[in-house]
Amino acid sequence: MKKRTLIGPITQVLTLDHLSLKGALQDDQLEISHQAGILIEGGKIHSVGSWERLCRNFPQAEKVELSAEFVAVPGWVDCHTHLCFGGSRAKDFAMRNAGKTYLEIAEAGGGIWDTVTQTRKMSQNQLAQLTAHRANRHLSAGITTLEVKSGYGLSVEEELKMLRAIQQANTLTQTDLIPTCLAAHLAPKDFSGSASDYLYQMAERLFPILKQENLSKRIDAFVEKSAFSPEEIRPYLQKAKDLGFDLTLHADQFSVGGSQVAVAYGARSADHLEASGEVEISLLAQSNTIAVALPGASLGLGMGFPPARKLLDQGGSLAIASDWNPGSAPMGDLLTQASILSTFEKLSTAEVFAGLSFRAAAALGLSDRGKISAGYQADVILFPTADYREILYHQGKLTPTQVWKNGKKTEHGFIPIEPRAQF
User: Fold this and answer.
1) Which of 41, 131, 309, 382 has its CA 20 to 30 A from that of 209?
2) CATH of domain 77-363
């Protein structure tokens, strides 16, 4: 018999069960178990219910008895990050706040290419250690699954170095790292051909190695005037789709067009969407492509938030991610960003929690996490409060004091590293 662990009594357990993947949500739809226990078996949720009843029905379970009030929610899922990078872009931030434009910053040696240069100087091991360190900081904040992109290599060899570093980092943290290939971040300055030539080379030379080494099952691309046009990116996405990769796109950040491409190619998600208008909102809402809001980028760049409220009201699915990166979103504090987005876009607590959990998991193609329900991964975080509404109210200052990953309690948010299979 597998080991069973029973946690409780918990003042409120928000299971997020029976909430829909798409559309608006109200707080009265939240399923809340009071004075409850969570029974874990084999790293998965066995059952949720009355603490007293579970104690009575499973007397042999190892009990973790809580002596204070707690609210339990599923472990957060951050479905869009750029954690694997070298260097800093503090100079860019200062210049931007002083009124410099993106082009002026790039001409002064800043921008994405600056991070590419600094990342290329680092070894695979250095990048792996930095990525794991950042992932562990995320874990301590309750993020138990997170996506990590490449995209600061921009050559076959350097993109492989980044993705191998992400794979290595996944053995150095108990957070599940979901690697995404973002070789189509922008056309590199040191490539002599056209943007289309670069994309063709990446598709022909890089994609087969990703398959051979199981480095990534996901392909991302930045569809924007400063990166790749819809026309340039279509053959690249078609090649990825033909090879069986999942797709996601950086879309509608500064101009529209990317979300239409995302929907046309059946992408799992379209991320950013700050520039999305009524046409794009309607298109996304009628599709199965999940809209991913990145409020950290809005804060970092001093621009408006994506139209989250309209997307939900028209029936779309909304996830919320940190976009943690060295340029536009260096904060990396997912809960703070989600709390701020909720105040500007008038999102219910149910909508925010769904966007940080099972809807974000769906954006990664994962259906086994994001709810505290039988059969789901036992990824659970406990906040020291008796009322779930306090979590967003404190805008990131109320942090979890217990983080459980795959049924194991972390120590101060970190789990002792043990060798394990790649995710």
Assistant:
1) 131
2) 3.20.20.140
Task: In whole angstroms, give the CA distance from residue 362 to residue 349.
Answer: 19
Residues ≥6 apart with Cβ < 8 Å to 50: 33, 35, 36, 37
Nearest-CA neighbor of 89 among 152, 131, 135? 152
How far does CA 314 lie from the centroid of its chain? 23
**150 φ/ψ angles, rounded to the nearest 5 degrees:** -85, -150
CA distance 152 to 106: 15
Q: Are 215 and 164 in contact (CB under 8 A)?
A: yes
* pLDDT tens digits, 321-358: 999 999 999 999 999 999 999 999 999 999 999 999 99
Q: How many other CB atoms are there within 10 angstroms of residue 221's CB atom? A: 32
What is the tens place of the pLDDT at every residue in 223-264?
999 899 999 999 999 999 999 999 999 999 999 999 999 999
* Calpha distance 32→11 (Å, rounded): 10
Spatial neighbors of 342 by CB under 8 A, at least 6 apart, are 348, 349, 351, 352, 392
**pTM for this prediction:** 0.96
For 111, 117, 162, 241, 405, the CA distances from 122, given in Å and listed in that order, are 18, 9, 10, 31, 30
Same fold, 4-75+370-409 and 77-363: no
Q: How many CB atoms lie within 10 A of CB 187?
A: 18
Cis peptide before 9 (omega within 30 of 0): yes
C-alpha distances in angstroms, 145 versus 61, 193, 361, 366? 27, 38, 8, 10
Residues 366 and 351: their CA atoms lie apart, in Å, by 19
Amino acid type, 285: A
Amino acid identity, position 308: A
Choose among 40, 34, 44: nearest CA to 10. 34
At the topology level of CATH, where does 4-75+370-409 sit? Answer: Urease, subunit C; domain 1 (2.30.40)
Q: Contact 123/156 with Cβ under 8 angstroms?
A: no
